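Page header: ASSEMBLY MODEL / four components / 1356 residues total.
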Amino acid sequence: MVVVMKPGTDRPDIDRLVERFQSMGLEVGITTGVGCTILGLVGDTTAVDMDKISIHPHVERVMRVQEPYKKANRKFHPADTVVEVGAAKIGGGSFSVIAGPCSVESEAQIIEVARDVKQAGAALLRGGAFKPRTSPYSFQGMGLEGLDLLTEARAATGLPIVSEIMAPRYVDVFEEKVDVVQVGARNMQNFDLLKEVGRMSKPVLLKRGLSNSYEEWIMSAEYIMAGGNENVILCERGIRTFETYTRNTLDVSAIPAVKQMSHLPVVVDPSHSAGMYWMVEPLAMAAIAAGADGLLIEVHNDPPHAKCDGQQSLTPENFGHLMAKVGTLVDIMNKTLVK
Amino acid sequence: MVVVMKPGTDRPDIDRLVERFQSMGLEVGITTGVGCTILGLVGDTTAVDMDKISIHPHVERVMRVQEPYKKANRKFHPADTVVEVGAAKIGGGSFSVIAGPCSVESEAQIIEVARDVKQAGAALLRGGAFKPRTSPYSFQGMGLEGLDLLTEARAATGLPIVSEIMAPRYVDVFEEKVDVVQVGARNMQNFDLLKEVGRMSKPVLLKRGLSNSYEEWIMSAEYIMAGGNENVILCERGIRTFETYTRNTLDVSAIPAVKQMSHLPVVVDPSHSAGMYWMVEPLAMAAIAAGADGLLIEVHNDPPHAKCDGQQSLTPENFGHLMAKVGTLVDIMNKTLVK
Amino acid sequence: MVVVMKPGTDRPDIDRLVERFQSMGLEVGITTGVGCTILGLVGDTTAVDMDKISIHPHVERVMRVQEPYKKANRKFHPADTVVEVGAAKIGGGSFSVIAGPCSVESEAQIIEVARDVKQAGAALLRGGAFKPRTSPYSFQGMGLEGLDLLTEARAATGLPIVSEIMAPRYVDVFEEKVDVVQVGARNMQNFDLLKEVGRMSKPVLLKRGLSNSYEEWIMSAEYIMAGGNENVILCERGIRTFETYTRNTLDVSAIPAVKQMSHLPVVVDPSHSAGMYWMVEPLAMAAIAAGADGLLIEVHNDPPHAKCDGQQSLTPENFGHLMAKVGTLVDIMNKTLVK
Amino acid sequence: MVVVMKPGTDRPDIDRLVERFQSMGLEVGITTGVGCTILGLVGDTTAVDMDKISIHPHVERVMRVQEPYKKANRKFHPADTVVEVGAAKIGGGSFSVIAGPCSVESEAQIIEVARDVKQAGAALLRGGAFKPRTSPYSFQGMGLEGLDLLTEARAATGLPIVSEIMAPRYVDVFEEKVDVVQVGARNMQNFDLLKEVGRMSKPVLLKRGLSNSYEEWIMSAEYIMAGGNENVILCERGIRTFETYTRNTLDVSAIPAVKQMSHLPVVVDPSHSAGMYWMVEPLAMAAIAAGADGLLIEVHNDPPHAKCDGQQSLTPENFGHLMAKVGTLVDIMNKTLVK
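Prediction written out in full:
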């Protein structure tokens, strides 16, 4: 941590602040020049509240030098985390595709899609039972019944299932029925929910919030890991920018950046990123080329009649075409596509 | 709703789509010219899913013409909603200031601050019992004990209390103890929580999310109102932009814009907007001048030792100075400052 | 400047870097702890290229501590700059309103508007002769003829004139005919143009770019001042954000922030900020309340037939109503409205 | 174009507006329902000023249906534009890499880098003679001397040269000496400069502005094309967002989106996108996978001593490694790498 003193601060005032830091167990170095004094603080600064120091009357500015996260920090855990779910593996050179409909609509629908995506090479099945919708008047998902239909689709195909949890009260039923628990973009900083899924034994797929920084995203993973659940998969799904042509702006830089900062695997959701089915392929390919460990893709047997997100869903046929290209590119990237 | 057909679509294809809309009870007007056909749809289009229409093979684009919200829509409820909490009134020409510390820290602290802000002219007391913190290692609030201390501060001063709810499981205790339930910016689209507070009898102060549009914000109010709770106060608290000098960017345009779109009252939180105590006054003044119905201001008896947000908290003394200016400006704006 | 070394860097490597900084005339302080070494650099660091240091193989991160601007820096020039143009004064407690049409359209139009705005209390007349338009097919302004009509309006009313320069080749004619030279938002980092207006004797009104930070904005002022022209007026006109209801998002925080960073006066353009005439009043009032030194307002005698920006222009009548309120608020803010 | 009337507008008022549109040669369709009337306008609406209509007293909203650009519009020119520069080809299945230093620093430097990048497979040489720098105190480029050194490097290697023009007065010398004229991000809406390069015979590489939409970017290309120069290459170089870890956020979605909207080729600059040399490879690969027609990459023989942008420059050795991967991926994408 670095503390910049206000110009003209007297030496005794500086010394008092230095003593305060030293009493917290920190090493303090002082650099003094004409009109500027800088304090360098080294040691365990995670307990130091930057905001408090910043309002000290003689302090001009405080800057953090070390990351505020530990368990998710690659500096302390250099090796890639590999999340294993049944036969599927995400991270450390293994690449898995998670596919399925935006929402579970019926037994026939989810089983048909599950069979189709498995056949095309998906390693996990996704399907929404509880849906976060902007309008209270839109379809809100089938709820618990949807979860049961997902378990039937798992039984029929062997694919592990991924579904979104929206409230702490469903932790037990998700623990029992689901293989990977998804936390949606709008709940990325629902800290109560993060604490709850931190106590679960199932891996968590944590979507990046619409306008959250890499650091905030990793801090939300840290919440889950601090609760004891270290199997966190980060999922980039597009951020909000000024551009309105696409629903969101896929931030491919997040992939190399977050992998530099953290050891956790990073997957990409090209369906929500652009919000248009014809952009799924170029964005999926870009994600793989930038180093992603997996993809999350919306596939629906009948997009024009999907209860949600039909405009961004692929048909099973188009998903099959995409998977052929995915396989070639994953290979070029020296990764293994898990089927 | 407006549907733009792809260039070159044949008349029979257009007719089939028109019949589909007519079967939904909509009036359809057709405008045809060289290379472009536009369908105008009038009637109750809230049940029409734009996304589904947009993937119809002959459709180029769909544009909504009417607002997707009803209960919060000023078109259907022209008169300003006035939220009354004890003697305090917000909206319709009444202006109230909500003040208090970021978090409740002790009985002595909250009672002292409550007395100070009441004396200076605040009409409601705010205080956090449950705190949404970016880091799992930061102080998370006193929890239920904090709520009890707030009720003591209310007993000591008569000020109604405002506190943030972070999870559905606390709905009953908030219903019992708190006068206004705050939903934080990070939970603005925590739809499960919105549904729960929609069933409460207490007014809800709904903060705007970090990067949520006016329409999304009003749609979240619509969730609460659709549940039966029509006493919603909207709170602008700064949005996330590229500028990093301030913690957030206060969007004063939100005040006239949202008041044009909706009949709900709008208050402003200048403390979180900039994140710096010395900016609270100019931003508070700007908010009043732009037409706000109230302010939410962080006041702490000892900012340098506050457990959170000390850098943006006013001392009681500075809050007193600010309130003198607030009173003058509220007067100029032809509103009544409720004390 | 602060340099954070990579964990595990050997002492000799650190020493070599320290010597390099010392050879540049800088004081260097070293703070060392477990796994982290921080160098504090003090002295004239304006010549140090952060980017170069950041790629040094042993350097993890470089952070600037001092501002990169000098002439515009309030630290070195604590007193407010007051820009005087004829009888008009902007800054240091003097508040002036600049009003007029988006573009000069005819002699009759500009003289009529000039008379109207003068009567209502404007201190300067604005009018565009050269118009920056997004489309090559839109009206591009009357050019030099427009400038001549502005000088006639000045002769008729005594109001100094403000007009936008779009290319270096017009520097001489603007020097001759115009009283304040405006640099538009889209040219805020047209460095060639900034250098040219830096050689002029006329004050410059520098609009903030659509997505430029406070620091970049002040650095563009520094370009002009480095050329010898220290009469720079900064103009906030709304920034680009994710919100699409308004054309731009007025950043009122810019007013107190930039006035803290710099001694230059700050005016606000509420017309371009929202892009809607009915928002001009609340935004103008917010700007004054936040501490602005002046306003730039579009007024047109016949907005529905204006050649550009009619939707955000006030009629002379509405401008008159606004000016009454402006006068009251400027007074409350302890400033003097110059007429 | 679609015009939504205010609720309650009388039929005669609607009819008067309809007649006004008809007198402009437009087809008008009227859809009327309870509380809402929509006018559909078809025909050549490029001359209709949306802003003017939007302030008509009975109009609630105006929405554009057709694109405001013609020459750059893929609807009217379905075939890909291929820009040829000597042996290099960009677009229509041909992929070229433009490489070289941020700025020309000396004869030895530019010739050495030119030889290195040619050897590694670059098809064009880039080098800055005039540099847009945020600070007036930073190195501003070698100017005309730099252009001469570039021509020497061309003579030595046969590589066509790409360099940035910053002011209209250099049009003649660029026409004479340079093969591709670059317009920088900060000048994307410097309309005077766009008009000037529109009169040149040399292809123009037009960078996207920091916060400009796809449509604005294409409209700037339209300015150049309207002047007669139809050889425009669009260059995505990262946009400004809330994320500060990277200098800019590469928007890969721009590639498929803009290629859908326009027939012009799109290249990507991964060096400026992130601003960090170690991110160049993943971003370059992502760009190719998303469908880019070329890359613009900063290569410097001695990055730690580069006069600008050293932190984002590759060494010739690393550029060689990158080019091997580029070749493989371009091949997979069924494009031809031009060397």
